[in-house]
Write a structure and sequence with these properties.
Layout (H helix, E strand, L loop, with lengths): L1 E6 L7 H15 L3 E6 L14 H4 L7 H11 L2 E9 L2 E2 L1 H13 L8 E8 L4 H13 L13 E3 L10 H28 L15
Parallel strand pairs: 1-2, 1-3, 3-5, 5-6
Antiparallel strand pairs: 3-4
Length: 205
């Protein structure tokens, strides 16, 4: 079993990384492999709605998005983590997630998702909601913790002092591990939920 973790901060050893490190330690204890990929410092452009991915199954821009997609396909869970910028996630991470979820054609049903946000003070709730929407449009169960998945800190390493935030990350990782293991057993016994042919409707007709 494997969890893919995306660090949307441009700072490799910042507070967002610290939050993911807390989770990674728990995954190791739970026997779940995890990999952290730094994406917040990469040059990733937004989607141009060219539609080529519907023909090729991957994005026309062959950058980190296609790299991450291959790893995401093999993973049982996905954690996306971001610092808060103007009550929103890092734009680089959002560009990656838009293209990742839109261009990848593999079934994401029952892969477990979790979002993590880090801020000096405010904007966490709106960023947390923003990131969770990628999971809830993709039939991905969302892992929760004892509090919203938030950790606080501004200067590098400051989040180390947020004991509640660090505990929230560890509880999140334990709950996510339980969900991943439970879903694996459920798939063995019952398989994935039945699929219906997709109904597409538009507001103009």
């Amino acid at each position: 079993m494997k969890v893919l973790m995306l660090n949307g901060s441009p700072r490799k050893n910042g507070n967002t990384a610290l939050a993911l490190s807390e989770m990674k330690g728990v995954f190791e204890k739970e026997g779940i492999e995890s990999e952290i990929i730094q994406v917040g410092n990469k040059d990733i452009r937004g989607c141009i709605a060219c539609g080529k991915c519907s023909q090729t199954g991957k994005c026309v821009f062959n950058d980190a998005v296609n790299e991450v997609a291959a790893k995401f396909e093999m993973a049982d869970g996905l954690v996306v983590a971001s610092p808060v910028y103007y009550a929103s996630a890092n734009a680089t991470l959002i560009a990656l997630l838009d293209r990742l979820f839109y261009s990848s054609s593999f079934d994401k049903t029952m892969k477990v998702g979790a979002s993590v946000v880090c801020a000096r003070r405010g904007g966490c709730s709106s960023t947390f909601d923003e990131l969770n929407k990628y999971f809830t449009i993709s039939s991905m169960p969302v892992a929760s913790s004892q509090y919203w998945n938030i950790i606080h800190g501004r200067a590098e390493g400051e989040a180390q002092m947020d004991e509640e935030g660090k505990q929230t990350m560890r509880v999140l990782a334990r709950n996510m591990s339980f969900l991943i293991k439970s879903i694996a057993l459920g798939k063995e016994k019952f398989g994935l939920p039945e699929k219906e042919e997709r109904a597409w409707t538009h507001f103009i007709r």
